[in-house]
Design brief:
Distance between the termini: 22 Å
Strand content: 25-35%
Order of helices and strands: EEHEEEE
Number of helices: 1
Structural class: mainly beta
Helix content: under 10%
Mean pLDDT: 90
Largest sheet: 4 strands, mixed
Length: about 80
């Protein structure tokens, strides 16, 4: 099964990773298993994590999922 990139539309014919882009894996929480495109993010921006909109979280539509770099594994965010 191809990986799904956060922010792609459900009917997108190519929701997976694209060549030339940099991704981190979202682990746990509402967006578990999705990839987040961090292409062009500085090290400082990546260290700050991301607050992402989600429709499937604990608080329903319009909720947020807070992800941050996993200590020792910056390509996986918890």
């Amino acid at each position: 099964m191809p990986r799904h990139v956060y922010g792609t539309e459900p009917d997108d014919p190519s929701p997976g990773p694209q060549p030339g882009c940099t991704y981190v894996e979202l682990v746990g929480g509402a967006l578990d298993g999705q990839l987040l495109d961090v292409t062009g993010w500085t090290t400082e921006q990546r260290s700050g994590g991301a607050l992402l909109i989600t429709e499937v979280g604990m608080y329903g539509a319009g909720g947020r999922a807070d992800y941050a770099q996993r200590p020792g594994d910056p390509d996986r965010w918890d």
